[in-house]
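Entry for the shared binder. Reason: the reviewer on the internal report wants the predicted structure included alongside the sequence.
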Amino acid sequence: MSPPILPNYADGSLVNLMASIVEAEGGTARHPSLAALPPAELSAARNVVLLIIDGLGDNYLRRRGAGGALSAARRCAMTSVFPSTTASAITTSYTGCTPLEHGLTGWFCYFGEAGCVGAPLPFMSRGDQLSLTRRGVTPQGIFAAPPLFGSLEVQSFVVTTRDIVDSSYNGRYCMGAERCAYDQAQELPDAIERIVKSGMQRKFIYAYWPEYDRISHRHGSQGPQAFEQLEKIDAAFGSLLSRLSGTDTIVLATADHGFIDVAPEESLELPPALAELLRFPLCGERRVAYCHVRSESEFVARAQDWLGGRADVLPSHELVREGWFGGGAPHPRFAERVGDVTLMMRDRYAVKDWIAGEARHLHIGNHGGTSEDEMMIPLVVAKR
């Protein structure tokens, strides 16, 4: 495996891509722009389309997408955020904030205001899978960072799948944009084309395609099912470029993270000797797990003894100090979102605990870690 990759928040990450877009569209960026995509290049176009292909790492695109439309327009690689996962990276793409600022640090977070571990994207508590609203919290309360759309001087749209277009998460983070739903990959170019050609006003169109991620979790990222999804979205991207010819549009494509595949023997179950020291179930991701512990010294000693060379066992505040979550003003509840100790899994290892109400299943495809395959994402740029 490659050495750990620290996100390049200075000028080479998803944070910086969003800064370039925000500045080009008349907003005030929170962070420096992307070196590979100056805001002036985007502001020269009447329309900007950003397509986020969930899970499509740069290494995978270069290995398997050669000869396709996405590969032909690939400009370079950039880093995701940390952890390299949807909850953290998509929230960055909706807000322009680093994970330190927006405070969503993985699929599962401990939400002190709700008194439970929850999954922010489906807005449910872990285990019983009840809406967090039943615990007296609102999306506006959990999702504190403001969405970027309302700050732009252009008309904004979000094009996403019908099953999530009206979710609590999208309802909050798409504020300031008009939401548009689609069902199949081949419908995505239709939806974007209609918006681009609906008038001469300047527009920013944010489009999201989740299916490669879903399939890669279930079947693995290296198998035929994942490759079929790449072929589908690549064909849709090529069709989109043809349809938008002559519309003065810049089409960008990237991802939120990449993938690695984890064998069953590499997926570790937290032993009782460690589980008994937890105050709450594991948070974060299977590749980067946050532990809220009763005794930090005892937990660290036991975890290091159990894991050996399979993970780094680190105080969570050290990761903050080293800049893994980026800069800016920390979210007011950030410390509780990352717990006391973080297990950063090495090689292809993952870690999991189980609680009542959860189905016992293991993903083949995983992400969230610091390997090159997980952390590096493509920057695709096409001018039409």
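Summary line for the report: The chain has 16 helices and 18 strands.
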